[in-house]
Amino acid sequence: MNGRPISGASVDARRHRARGRLALITGALLLAVTACGGGGGDDGGGDKDKNKAGSDKAKANTPSVAVVDIAPKDGAKDVATSGALKITADKGKLTDVKVEDTKGRAIPGEIAKDGASWKPESHLAASTKYKVHATAKDSEGRASAKDISFTTLTPKNTFVGHFTPENGDKVGVGMPVSLNFTRGITKPDAVEDAIEVTADPAVEIRHKWYGNDRLDFRPEEYWKPGTKVTVKLNLDGVEGRPDVYGSQVKSITFTIGRSQVSTVDAKSKKMTVERDGKVVKTIPITTGAPATPSWNGQMVITEKHKVTRMNGATVGFTDSEGEGEYDIKDVPHAMRLSASGTFIHGNYWASSSTFGSANVSHGCVGLRDVRGGYDGKTPAAWFYDQSMVGDVVTIKNSKDDTIDWFNGLNAWNLAWDKWEK
To answer: Known Gene3D superfamilies for this protein (predicted)?
Structure first.
């Protein structure tokens, strides 16, 4: 053979080097397998994670089992303004409810603690289209929603409340809030719930019905000067009597001025005027004659007239021929104290010596004055100029009874515990 012979040592060296290269290749392959497998042990963890992820994805894609139910039905018309709107959830809990009219005004409401139902806080307005959106979630947190719209009924018969005082008025400390309704109310609770009277600074305010068409509000004591009183009427859609609905949404605010309380003593025939708790003037007066005594009690000035006519026939004082016992066409500085005709006013027809010494009227309180009321220095002119609607005039020591609280705006003559909370 040509060439150099191969020794045994050279063959072994080449075999050793080949085994080394094979070991390196095998190690690299094992590393690659380990990296792809995500772990060294064969415990099946990779398959479990894949199964869980797949299960979660499947649950997320499964429709919610929660069911939202809304009454009335979508598109319903002539829906009642109270009691007809009901929203509930089955196999889940309500999480969000919105009820709005087409102008975006929301009807507030509350979801029950168990999430099974939603209840509106107030009635709905009449002749109004509402949109409802309600969402519920099942035990897995999957949401289900429902949207509907409906329109409330249009009433054939309506009522409103005429209110005293007027919006923006500044009045005395004795002025109650009084509402007179144009129709008799046979569902007073519904009407009361639609009226809110608040004061700043806050004070407890109670109400009282007179008959079925008048509702008054007052605090326990006279208002504090500077108090801001707000009256909110949300009567639109309120069924005040069968098939008769309110048609009024209004907010009224008035302010209480300084305190003026005047006390007429029919026995001493003098009137003491207190302003913010201090006596500012004592005025001689005349009250009702023995045959026609004045009412006792706390009375509120409700009207002021520089000059007015007073005819006895309008308040039951007539002669044998049915004519008024008196008919004075130009009574000066007159301020009304009762609906039945009691005034505190200027008197020019009695002699000056009458005031402070005799009671000669038909029940009114008279102060010395001149015909036409042109003299601003007379007691009647001074008192008229110093008084405002809502001031209190209290008559005491007269021979008559105490005036009824509803005779005028004289709420203070009814005990506080007789007023409803």
So the answer is: 2.60.40.3710, 2.60.40.3780, L,D-transpeptidase catalytic domain-like (2.40.440.10)
Q: Under CATH, which architecture does the 157-257 domain have?
A: Sandwich (2.60)
> Domain 260-417's class?
mainly beta
Ranges of each domain in the chain: 67-151, 157-257, 260-417
Domains 67-151 and 157-257 share a fold: yes
If you count DSSP H runs as helices and E runs as strands, how many of each does the chain have, helices first? 4, 27
CA distance 383 to 304: 11
**Per-residue pLDDT at 53:** 54
Q: Taking residues 227-256, report their average pLDDT.
A: 98
Coil, helix or strand at residue 161: strand
Give the full edge-to-edge strand order of the sheet including 327-336: 303-311, 327-336, 343-347, 365-368
Label the pairing between strands 214-219 and 195-200. unpaired
pLDDT at 6: 43
Taking residues 202-216, report their average pLDDT. Answer: 98
Other beta carbons less than 10 A from residue 56's beta carbon = 10
Cα torsion 284, 290, 292, 298: sign: positive
345 is catalytic: yes
Contact (CB, 8 A) for 359 and 286: yes
3-state secondary structure at position 194: coil
Query: What gap in Å lies between CA 294 and CA 402, rounded to an integer?
Result: 9
Q: What is the largest CA-CA distance in the chain?
A: 175
Within 8 A by CB and 6+ apart from 346, the residues are 331, 332, 333, 334, 366, 367, 368, 369, 370, 373, 378, 380, 381, 384
Top-tier CATH class for 67-151? mainly beta
362 flagged as catalytic: no
**Eight-class DSSP state of 166:** -
- Contacts for 39 with CB less than 8 Å, ≥ 6 apart: 45, 46
Q: From CA 10, how far away is CA 137, in angstroms rounded?
A: 81
- For residue 396, the cross-strand partners are 265
Instruction: Tell which residue, 235, 196, 176, 186, has the closest CA to residue 412.
Output: 176
d(Cα 317, Cα 327) in Å, to the nearest integer? 10
pLDDT, tens only, 381-403: 999 999 999 999 999 999 999 99
Total length of the chain: 421
pTM flag (> 0.90): no
Q: Which of 123, 333, 362, 364 is catalytic?
A: 364
Exposure b/e, 212-240, CB count within 10 A at least 16 = b:
bbbbbbbbeebbeeebebebebbbbbbbb
Beta strands (DSSP E) in 9-104 are: 67-71, 86-90, 93-101
Selected catalytic residue, list 123, 207, 345, 362: 345
